[in-house]
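@channel sequence for tomorrow's demo:
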Amino acid sequence: MIGILGGTGFHKTDFLGKAEEIEIETFYGRVAALRGKDFLFIHRHGMDMKVLPHLINHRANIMAYKEQGVKEILSIASVGSLKKEIPPKSLVVPHDFMQLTNISTFFETEIVHVTPGLDEEMRKRILSVSRRLGIKVVPQGVYFQAAGPRLETCAEINFLKDYADVVGMTMASEATLARELGIKYATIATVDNYAHGVAGAVPDFDMIVESAAQEREDLKKITKGMVEGLK
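structure tokens (generated this afternoon):
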């Protein structure tokens, strides 16, 4: 069983087959999920999509996967592009990430230092599935996690674009927690906008949500391929 972690604009799993609604009680809180034959789907913003980025209970979400026996998580993350050559509607498969503020941990009372990262074997499978399906993706990139819920200033983006390729608000926290629990984790990042100042963009949240809500047939195909074990 593969874990799927949905985000803005990716909240339906009907294309993967039947699924039952369940609730998973963890030490860190209760998590609503959809469980299918080969997947467990959790929406990071809640099934009603009302949980703001800075209020997401990342520890509960990742622990829910652990308690359900999930060994790997495919995350879908909405991002802004820091580079002109990565336009909106691109799909990016990050190979690394940055987060310079505090990230939640499962080890608040123990001296445990993990070396975070994205799972390379999962990344290669995503790329392989994409090639098999004839879907173009950006094969690598650095994801920078900013602190939400506000968007970034133009000055902040000018600074970040020298070190990262896309910017979001959630993935680094999830990837780090997954690594702490020994769960493989990789991401397909959907570029919904240029970040502030890139190509003259001045994004707003409503615009990002509208873009993210558009049909993502290629993303669905890759996700289905990962669930079905295509290579």
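heads up for whoever presents: The mean pLDDT is 90.
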